[in-house]
Design brief:
The chain has about 150 residues and is of the alpha+beta class. It has one domain. About 25% of the residues lie in helices and about 30% in strands. The strands form 2 sheets. Strands 1, 2, 3, 4, 5 and 7 form a 6-stranded antiparallel sheet that branches. Strand 9 and strand 10 form a beta hairpin. It is globular and about 40 Å long.
Length: about 150
């Protein structure tokens, strides 16, 4: 009826992460992290500061500040940027908090096998082992690397 209100029906391209200048990648226990900017918004003109975690051919971008909040204990689950919510990054404290709040957690069975300060990227629904497990000694090194990155 009103052609100027119709949006382009073409499917949006998935955003491509742009490495930040001067960034040195982090590596630990088969997992790598890169400091990137991710195009965001309808036109992709805004850039969001993210951390790109990779293991093998699996790659996920997480908002930089949310990962720092997870490491500081302010949040316990971080959802990815630029893709559907088919994976999430969590720590064991988040699983315990959900269990004590009376919410059964599918991730609890897997996270019970890891130290309390380990991180894991889980697939939704959580019926398989974690995609990425970052053990506690690597979490400390990842945390130090993140804090050195320019904001």
């Amino acid at each position: 009826m009103f052609p100027w209100t119709k949006r382009d029906a073409a499917a949006a391209l998935s955003p491509t992460a742009i490495p930040r200048t001067g960034g040195i990648p982090w590596h630990g226990d088969g997992v790598s992290a890169v400091d990137v900017d991710l195009p965001f918004g309808r036109k992709g003109t805004r850039r969001v500061h993210c951390v790109q975690l990779s293991v093998g051919d699996f790659t996920v971008e997480l908002m930089f500040q949310e990962v720092l909040d997870l490491l500081n204990g302010r949040v316990h689950v971080v959802d990815p940027m630029g893709r559907g919510h088919d994976v999430f990054l969590c720590n064991a404290h988040g699983v315990e908090a959900a269990a004590t709040a009376g919410k059964a957690s599918e991730a609890g069975a897997w996270m019970a096998n890891f130290p309390a300060d380990a991180l894991a990227i889980m697939r939704v629904p959580v019926t398989e082992p974690p995609v990425i497990v970052i053990p506690s000694h690597s979490v400390a090194s990842l945390s130090a690397w993140l804090r050195k990155q320019p904001k």
